[in-house]
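Re: beginner question about structure tokens

> Can someone show what the tokenized structure looks like for a real chain? I only ever see the sequence side.

Sure, here's an example I had lying around. Input first:
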Amino acid sequence: MNTDNLKEIVKEKYGLIASQNNRKCGCKTKEIDYTILQKDYKGTEGYFNEADLGLGCGMPTEFAGIKKGNTVVDLGSGAGNDVFVARAIVGEKGKVIGIDFTPEMLEKAERNRQKLGYTNVEFKQGEIESIPLEDSSADVVISNCVLNLVPDKGKAFSEIYRILKRGAHFCVSDIVLKGELPVEIKKSAEMYAGCVSGALQQDDYIEAIYHAGFKSAEIKKTVNSPLPDEILRQYLNEKQIEDFKKKEFGIFSITVVGVK
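And the corresponding structure tokens:
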């Protein structure tokens, strides 16, 4: 599949989730549900239940070092869950901007913003590979289980670098791999939209951060989640599953901080 096809697959899936008001993890492939990787937001200041669609694989605001008065950008902001949590931290004098490329998600996020009455929160349509913001405009960039869906992750990190102020940082939660996926899973559109086949090797992910120009990259948290047999059987025969399990392999949610 080419880049445009992959983007359309992701847009269609997330548009469906938004329009149906499903509380399903975006990182979900049939019976496998990565909500187990996401920290429970309930009780967190700024949490708004209607904005939490269970689409994350972590809680980037936990390690983002956001301060009052900051300008925070959330990439792949969905219905606004992390945006509203970040807004509670930046306060009235700060600003939070959510970027998403799915119209249905943006509409849902804007409805949530209006319900909450926030005037220092804004949602914009745009792609992470071409963020619709000026250079050096953000104090902190956050993202939750979204960069793994972007075909050109190098370009995504370069764009994050561009919009951050000098000395500023990002904090993202994302899916990464350790070990090679079987080719049958790599080619699956369902597994791509489910955050698996599009995920980078962890070492490659960290290398992409440094290649974009960041001076440091530190993994703050790691959570492991194996693929269950019922999922593997949709793509592999029993012999292939047996061979796959003999190899050192893992799917992980990591939360990483990078400093410009």
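Each token stands for a local structural state, so reading them left to right follows the chain. Residues 103 and 173 are 23 Å apart (CA to CA).
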